[in-house]
Amino acid sequence: MIDPSEAEMAAMHRCLKPLGEAANEVGMDRALSMYSQDEALLLINAVVTTYVEAMVEAHEAGKYPPLRMLGQGSYG
Known about the structure:
Largest sheet: none
Order of helices and strands: HH
Distance between the termini: 27 Å
Shape: elongated
Number of strands: 0
Helix content: 55-70%
Number of helices: 2
């Protein structure tokens, strides 16, 4: 991300706790390269889910119309 917006930065900061919790569950005593695919996906899911939720909330609270996720309604 070259120049993240204020909302994007806030969303990234909200990811820190879920990322830490997921990393603690997987085990922080080993290098990321030693994680299994399922363990890595646990970390990715924690970050992506939190980030998307935060961005949706930011859009809903702002002047922009709510974001629609794929599969929710029609487009166009």
